[in-house]
Amino acid sequence: MKYTYYGQSCFLIEAAGKKLLFDPFITPNPLAKNINVKAIEADYILVSHGHGDHVADLVELAKQTGATVIAIPEVIGWVQKQGIDQVHPMNFGKFTFDWGAVRMVPATHSAGLPDGSYGGNPAGYVLELEGKSIYFAGDTGLTIEMKVLADLYNLDYAILPIGGNYTMDVDDALIATKYLECNNVIGVHYNTFPVIEIDTNIAADKFKRENKVLLLPEIGETITL
Asked: Gene3D superfamilies in the record, alphabetically (predicted)?
């Protein structure tokens, strides 16, 4: 299983013969200026919520790749108005595809759409792929509901926001690992804007002191999970 980071909360997971792209926000991100969006391939695009820093490239990439968009119904409605008909609306629950299972779970955040319309509820996802369970929190603050996921899954990785201000910061993410009972974290949603800039060395040291792993791939870097 491969994980490629494209900046902010955008990443690609390659597993079970499929390419799953999450929260595409690349072209407006100066930190991702070296990413060739035209070269990105995807079979599915999973969207956590409708804020611009999660959907800026959604329509373009959905048209370019022919991917099926997975999102809360309100986001799907917005996507369909822009000519995208390969969609799979979900709400908080689980669906099993032929390549793996996806559970949509709540996130604590706001969720308007770029045109100012109602964006439904923000969400995260738990993926069951190739014998592994991976949690992507989306944009969220620390919430006690994360403890439920430890009852449902033995999580191998948690992809958590760590930039603070709009979401959890590093310290909150460490608490989340205890709720989730997951020691391996991939950090997202940091350094893109001044208010979410962090010292990555300090962040990694905090995780190390708690005997946990914080992975922070460079933008464009691919790692094996």
From this structure: Ribonuclease Z/Hydroxyacylglutathione hydrolase-like
Q: What pLDDT sits at residue 152? A: 98
Count of the separate structural domains present in the chain: 1
- Where residue 169 sits, what CATH number does that domain have? 3.60.15.10
Q: What angle do CA 112, 169, 198 make, to 5 degrees?
A: 105
Question: DSSP strand E in the chain: where?
Answer: 2-5, 11-15, 18-22, 44-46, 68-71, 87-89, 93-96, 101-106, 123-129, 132-136, 157-161, 184-188, 213-215, 222-224
Position 148 confidence tier, pLDDT thresholds 50, 70, 90: very high
Q: Which two tokens stand for residue 182?
A: 């997951």
Of the chain, the end-to-end C-alpha distance in Å amounts to 5
**Residue partners of 182: CB distance under 8 A and separation at least 6:** 135, 150, 155, 156, 157, 158
Q: How far is it, in rounded angstroms, from Cα 48 to Cα 53?
A: 11
CA distance 164 to 172: 9
Q: Is 167 helix (H, G, I), strand (E, B) or coil?
A: coil
What pTM did the predictor assign? 0.98
Q: What tens digit of pLDDT does each residue of 89-101 get?
A: 999 999 999 999 9
Q: What's the farthest any 2 CA atoms get from each other in the chain?
A: 49
Structural domain that includes position 202? 2-224
